[in-house]
Amino acid sequence: xxxxxxxxxxxxxxxxxxxxxxxxxxxxxxxxxxxxxxxxxxxxxxxxxxxxxxxxxxxxxxxxxxxxxxxxxxxxxxxxxxxxxxxxxxxxxxxxxxxxxxxxxxxxxxxxxxxxxxxxxxxxxxxxxxxxxxxxxxxxxxxxxxxxxxxxxxxxxxxxxxxxxxxxxxxxxxxxxxxxxxxxxxxxxxxxxxxxxxxxxxxxxxxxx
Length: 209
Fold this sequence. Notes:
209 residues; 10-stranded mixed β-sheet; Threonylcarbamoyl-AMP synthase; double-stranded RNA binding; DHBP_synth_RibB-like_a/b_dom; SUA5_domain; Sua5-like_dom
């Protein structure tokens, strides 16, 4: 059965439509949704079967899982990271919500959730109303990856209808929140005393340092 294509207002998400998304996530569904950077594909972090299905779609082994968590706020992030020094906490407070993925040593809660011994975890709070509303209602993070394109010229697909055609037989729901971006988030390694940019993306870290 083909996936559902659901149009949601990107600035003022309709409550009943967010309810629909969260219901699908809680049932173990895989959802594609917009962020402040590029479209993402994800599922309920706490649903083990859904995480396994997400791995199959992305063709990766759970042991090699290197995905990010979309979180609602800093308090939720703190549940999944081992420690966060005061300067780093202040940096996150200034730069989030925003186009950044921060890598931390994972807390003991992460291996229990994923059933694999993950030493690090990436966390995000996108500056976008749709994923914000989803994770707030869901009550826990969405585990996520970027939607990549097979085209050698354009790395990321920006058109939700095109994404739907590509994934309609692999996922349960595609959210149309308008055209997505084509520049991913900036990835920052916070596992050592010296912050290190692993991937320069949309976010400019220097303005927050």
